[in-house]
């Protein structure tokens, strides 16, 4: 599928949407803690508006080819959306592990059927990846991740 896209308007619209999502989500942060993120959001909105307005006068047209199955793309988008909701319910570790395992299985099916042996081979690798992300966020970056069933 080939799409002709005004990339300036698309990037500006994405930036404005992202900024609105972050702005609405930051209501329970202290007054001094919010100064730097708000400054970044204001800069993001300013640049996004400039890109969006530029798209009207000097659009950056580009043809984008989306290869592969649109069905797979839709399934992955819905899966990542479900993961986003599941993090709050079952926690980061469990939801991330299950999501990564499903994504790996789902994308490997393109080559053919996936055996149980192959899936069991990927399980410790995915566990190390999720554990690594969890450790980096909680120990190095001091970010509290949502807890759930196990962590």
Automatic annotation (TrEMBL):
The name this protein goes by in its record: Tripartite tricarboxylate transporter TctB family protein
Ranges of residues in domain DUF1468: 25-146
Pfam families reported for this sequence: TctB
Organism (species): Halomonas aquatica
The keyword Transmembrane is annotated on this UniProt entry: yes
InterPro entries per the UniProt record, alphabetical: DUF1468
Tree of life domain: Bacteria
TM segment ranges: 7-24, 36-57, 69-86, 92-108, 120-141
Alphabetical keyword list: Membrane, Transmembrane, Transmembrane helix
Record carries keyword Membrane: yes
């Amino acid at each position: 599928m080939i799409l002709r896209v005004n990339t300036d308007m698309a990037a500006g619209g994405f930036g404005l949407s992202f900024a609105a999502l972050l702005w609405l989500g930051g209501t329970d942060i202290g007054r001094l803690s919010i100064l730097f993120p708000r400054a970044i959001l204001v800069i993001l909105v300013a640049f996004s508006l400039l890109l969006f307005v530029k798209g009207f006068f000097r659009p950056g047209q580009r043809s984008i080819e989306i290869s592969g199955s649109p069905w797979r793309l839709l399934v992955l988008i819905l899966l990542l959306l479900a993961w986003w909701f599941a993090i709050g319910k079952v926690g980061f570790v469990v939801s991330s592990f299950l999501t990564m395992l499903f994504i790996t299985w789902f994308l490997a099916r393109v080559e053919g059927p996936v055996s149980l042996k192959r899936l069991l081979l990927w399980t410790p690798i995915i566990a190390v990846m999720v554990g690594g992300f969890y450790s980096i966020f909680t120990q190095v970056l001091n970010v509290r991740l949502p807890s759930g069933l196990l962590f």
